[in-house]
Amino acid sequence: MIQPSHILLFSVSMLAFVHAGQAVAQQSVQLDQVEVVGDGSGSGADGSSGAPGIVATRGYTGIGGRTATKTDTPILETPQAISTVTNRQLEDRQPQSLVEAVAYVPGVNTGQFGFDPRYDAFKIRGIDVTYTGVFRDGLRQINSPNGLFRLEPYGLEAITILRGPAASIYGASSSGGIVDLISKRPTFVPLREINLSTGSYDRIQGAFDLSGPIEGNPTMAYRLTGLVRSSGTQIDAIADDRVFIAPAFTWKPDEDTKLTLLAEYMNSKTGGTAAYVNNYDPVTFTSIGATRVFAGDKRFNDFIQDQGRIGYELEQRLSDAIVLHSRFRFSGLSTNQEYVSSTFPGLVLESNSGIVADNYFESRFRTGFAEHQLITGVDVTSLDYTSRQGFGTQPFTSTFTYVPPITTRDRQNLTEVGLYAQDQIKVDAWRLTLGLRHDWLDTTFTSGAVGSPSSTFTRQDGQTTGRAALSYVTPFGVVPYVSFATSFVPNPGTVLNGAAGSGSLAAPTTGQQGEIGVKYEIPAYNALVSAALFDIDQKNGVVFEASSGVNEQIQLDLRSRGFEIEGTASPLPGLNLTASYSYNDVEITKLTAATVGNTLNASPYHTASIYADYTIQGGTFDRFGFGAGVRYVGSSFGDNVHTPALNNAPGTFVDAALHYELGALDPRFEGVRLQVNATNLLDDVQQVCTSGYCYFNQGRRIIANLRYRF
Asked: Where in this chain does the record put each TonB-dependent receptor-like beta-barrel domain (predicted)?
């Protein structure tokens, strides 16, 4: 829980920043007016992408974005690899999860656990970001070991993926990077949309998105987004049901003040296990491959989760040179997970709650020939979770089932307070970015059997992180850059400690990265090409390991090196293209004697993708469109000791889409769009092994959607 000392520190820091801001405001020099152009990720009048194509020239310019620097810096001038999945791309591809939404982003490795709708698990630059790399509207999304927030893509405006450390301004975050999920926000132009969907596995879904100014008050706007779904999946025992509602409200009394309230509630139901029975070596009792037999039991396999969040974003201009940004969110969830392992039932009841608050001043001033864009801020994060678990002592039979009693209880409180500053300095064509932050971390963990005394562990950690980057903006659109950054993130839960199998609090994960890159914007073709070389050294990363026959959470050191190139373009009206390639070598530098020097499991060296969507402009087939994408995932190892039977073969997956605006056929149907999307069109189902256990990837899925905007 947040302690009084943390609240006091937060309040005193804010007062100090206010006084500092007022002092700087009196001395600052007003800079020339800067024109902000559209980025392709905001909503247009009809709720579609605000730009004609998919090329984002800036990080999402809404109050919830600015992911890379927390300032409105063009992506071209951002000295770090960054990708944006725009609103247009979300509409064209219709992803059903976060994993699907980022599948075409370079450096992102999805599908390491095959088909598993329970969690959005993926890596960036070979480093798992499932727990520590997902942000929502610029604030860390708080998770606990079995309580991870699920994403409803229909509630998103855009997604920004920043590759590499960003702890100097965000604090707790992965050294692989962060994924910032940008929620839909109120629009002052009316937007009304109704969606109906059906498709594979008896899917039925209805959704709506309503927004606009509040009648009689042009300073206020609302948005209400909702969705209801009933669906099965490729495993009969697993549902994909959901109820989602997200209200939002914006008050903008003048050009200097903007306050937005964001809320969400979602109830979802899926499967407690998505695993398949594995074959095991009779001597070592380690997996040698998966069978097609479902490992759970349909009678006891529900995983029900309730989650909610509410918060605000405030942007207040204090002077011509200073703007205050304030964000706050309270979130909470509760889960009830049923599962069966080796015919024995298990039950996990977990709940977590937390707050995240971030307040910073953005100041602009000049010293000599240098123009400065300075941010100074303080943030607080608090997580409190409780996990109650039970495992049955009697096996299920064809006629006997039961709910196992709760036998153990864990509770953890984690509080982090951070102070940070970043200065972006502009001298002619040179751009220098310097960032520094210090975090204080307090952790308490209590564990024990129900009815027995509990054991308590505590940790206090402090860490300073930073970033230094230099770039040069050439007059012909090429921007080379070099950067160095460090990271620090606390880890929820405990890890295995020693041969006795005793547990201890997970140590914070630290990392550092060097990156060299270049970006090229081609205005005549509305295209952006970027490439980067990177080298990451990470300590105390948390992974799951099952090579011993027991799935356990452990910590390891690794080194990740690689190369990425990405291109996005809208060269012709109606044509949008994305393409990428990544090479990534992830080496274990500290774990066990048998694994040091090996490549980290489920980490392919090569991944590549391309997606194109074209809408015919005029003629007989006016506004008829089609899209297709190909994703290539190279071979990888299925465990850290490189057992030959677990090697993952390379795979190529094809996605496709057809869409048609019926208004081109008859004016009475204006606003009606029919769309069909197919994922893994060729139904290429392969075994994929991770951490010594094997799964199967998701097969072909087809979804038809009818949308009406009015």
From this structure: 251-681
Residues whose CB falls within 8 Å of the CB of residue 218, separated by 6 or more in sequence, listed in order: 188
Q: What is the per-residue pLDDT across 241-282, written as a single tens digit (0 to 9) for each? A: 999 999 999 999 999 999 999 999 999 999 999 999 999 988
**DSSP conformation letters of 442-457:** EEEEEEEETTSPPEEE
Question: How many whole angstroms separate alpha carbon 62 and alpha carbon 83?
Answer: 16
Q: 3-class SS at 346?
A: strand
Give the helix/strand (H/E) hosting 277. strand 276-280
pLDDT tens, 72-116?
A: 899 999 999 999 999 999 999 999 999 999 999 999 999 899 999
* CA-closest candidate to residue 479, choices 74, 32, 66: 74
Look-up of token digits 């405030």: 314
Q: Could you give the residue ranges of the DSSP H alpha helices within 429-486?
A: none
- Whether the predicted pLDDT of 707 surpasses 80: yes
Closest CA to 245 of 204, 283, 210: 210
Per cent of the chain over pLDDT 70 is 88
For residue 347, give Cα distances in angstroms to 113, 146, 340.
21, 12, 9
Using alpha carbons only, give the angle 462, 465, 466 rounded to the nearest 5 degrees.
160
Q: How far apart are CA 91 and CA 88, in angstroms?
A: 5
Query: Around Cβ 50, how many Cβ atoms within 10 Å?
Result: 18
DSSP secondary structure letter of residue 508: P
- Alpha-carbon distance values, 400 to 237, 394, 508, 609 (Å): 18, 10, 44, 48
Residues 341-383 pLDDT 10s: 989 999 999 999 999 999 999 999 999 999 999 999 999 999 9
Tell me the CA end-to-end span of the chain in Å, nearest whole number: 47
DSSP letter string over 100-122?
HHTTTSTTEEE-TTSS-TT---E
Cross-strand bridge partners of residue 455: 447
User: Which residue ranges form the domains of the chain, and what is each CATH number?
Assistant: 4-709 (2.40.170.20)
Q: What strands lie across the sheet with 82-85, from one edge to the other?
A: 82-85, 156-163, 177-183, 134-136, 139-140
Residue range 135-151: mean pLDDT, rounded: 92
What pLDDT sits at residue 55? 80
Place of tokens 């609240």: 7
505 neighbors 459 (Cβ within 8 angstroms): yes
Q: Degrees (nearest 5) of the Cα angle 364, 369, 370?
A: 35
Alpha carbon distance 543, 693 (integer Å): 13
- Rounded distance between C-alpha atoms, residue 379 and residue 326, angstroms: 10
Count the residues in the chain.
Answer: 710
